[in-house]
Structures are given as structure tokens and as C-alpha cells.
Amino acid sequence: MDIALSRVIGLGSDGASVMMGRHGGVVALFKQANPFSIQVHCVAHRAALAALDAEKAVENIRAYKNTISLHRAVEAMKHNWAAVAMEINEEAVGGNNQAQGLLGQIQTYSFIALTHALADLLPVMTKLNLVFQKDNVNLSSIRPIVQASDAAFTHLRDVPGPEEETFHAGYKDGTYKDVKLTNSSDHFIEAFKEARERYVQHLIDALLDRFPEDCMDVLHCLDALLNPSRYPQTHSALQEPAIRRIICHFTSLESADTATLIDTVSLRCDALAVMTALRGYGGLHFSTACEVLIRDFNKMYPEWTKLAKIACVIPVSSVPAERGFSLQNRIKTKQRRCLAENKVTRLMRIASCGETLGSFDFKSPAAQFSTAKKRKK
Known about the structure:
about 375 residues; mainly alpha
């Protein structure tokens, strides 16, 4: 596609060093061509890396993950643990060395207690990931869901969740679901509690480290300016800190040979009028407010319209692009490696944006095919 780099305002990536390197990375080279561009480390990758950071910090979690994988496996193990333990025990009694070793891992107090603790924690991270993997995720979604996840983890750090409470209620005298647990003395119970609290705290710290305020401030400021639900009640000094930050971003890199992307003087002068107008519509959120600016105020407030267009095209997640690669791999297999690029592109467009078989009108293409010349059939 013949698009000038000066018109590409946002760049999203998975955060790999080849992309985000400060000197030779794609982001650094891209900045040379367009100093006003906004680079975003994919929020879905940030969330996944936060969970990985916390996992690496606590030995109990690493050992648990080496025994089984997460999240559905945790749910399955939670429901079927007693049956699994009994079955493995029978194999172990019969002299199966592998079963003996596995039984020694899953029959401990810490294993089954951690299974229930993870059953409380993992859904929070799963919901976070699912939000960030949506095709329509935008920059207004980032802060609320991160704050909600932080609050949920903080609560689970201080108070056992419902699944862990279920385990404590069913645990009596070293036995759970009629299975005798090993390593269930007070020493091991206290060690589990300490490890659990440490893991949750690492999870909170990793989440906040992966979503730092200073790194996301331009995105947060765009949300503050273009999302009427974020506006303060008073009209005076509406979002002044956000306006200053946006003006700083689009002016600090200006030089004699760099064209101004946004007229920051007009942006500041029109701020009160634009925000008052958007609030007057009532019930607007980020996406709809941007649509209103672009549709209704394009000529009246051109700089704010330009800001809305910039905010709408910033890729906060690389998930859609990765889905595109996966779709391409499903279409252009080893058996179909001779497919031309244009053919692959058309097939991908049909697969991702085309109608379903249930709604597709077969009569029109069938009639067109029947009337085509034989050499074109």
C-alpha cells in the first residue's frame, strides 16, 4: 500500500526488542520518519507478560504449572481431583514409578489448596485478556479494566476467594474429599499462605509494571479529552492537564524541517466549546464522541476532528494482525503453497469479512457462472 509514513500516526507491536528497541528497533526508525507517531505495546501481550512475570517469581506456581497447565486444567483438576488422586494411587500401589512421583505432587496440601486459589485468580486474568483480545478494543478500555483487575487481585490477596473458602470448608483433619493429604502440618499450611500472598502481590506489581501511567499517558490523555464520561462536572479548566500533555506531545518534537501535525493554539482555544458540545449530546462515550466530532464538527473544529481521527486509528492491540497471520496460514498451507498473493488476499477477505453460508445468496453467482464463456469457467 502506497501510504506515506508521515500519515501513519500509530504503531502497535508485541513488545519484542526488534520492534521496541530504543536505537535500532522498528519504533526508533519509525520515529525518525514520523516524530509525532504514537507507539503502543499490545495490551493483550502486556497482560500475558504480567502473569508470566508473577509466575516466575514464585517457586510454588512454577512447580504447579510443570505438573498441569492452566486455566481450564485448573477447573478440571478442581472438580476431579479426588478421582484423579485415587486412580493414580492405585497405579502407584501397583508399582508404577511414574504414578508414585505424580501422586507425591498432587496429594500435598499446597497442591490442592493452590488449585482452588488459582480457580479464584485465573478468571480475573482471563477476563482481562478476553477484553484486550476483542477486535473493537480501544484506548478507553485500558485503564478501567486494568484498575478493575488490580482491585480484584488486591481483594483476593487480603481475603480468600469463594473457591478457596470451599476448600477450607471441606478440609478436615488432614483429609479433603476422603483423600488423606500429605505435607499438611501447620508449617506447610503457613508456607502455602505465604507463597499465595506473595504470588498475588507479584501479580499486582507485574500488572502495574506492564501498564505504567507514564508509558500510557498519551493514550490516557486522548481518552480524557475525547470521552465525555471522563469530563469533570465543572466547566472551568476542563481536562487542562490532558490538554497540556497532548500539546506537549505534538509540539516538543517540532523543528524547522518538521511540519506541524496539529494546530495546538486552536486545539486549546476550542477545548471548552468542544467539550461542552460533546457533553450536551448526553450519553456519549469514547467511540461515539469521536464519531460525532468527525461527522458533525469537521469544519467547525478541524483540530479536534483531527485529534479524534488520530485516537481512532491508534492500534492498542496487535491481536487482529496476529489473527490475520493465523488466517493466512490456514489458507496457504503446504499443499496450497503456489497460491498467488492476490488470491490469498481475496480468500482472507472472504473468510474474515464475507457472509456466512447461511446468509449467502448462491443464485446470483450461479447465474453469473452459467452465463460466462466456457474458457472463463
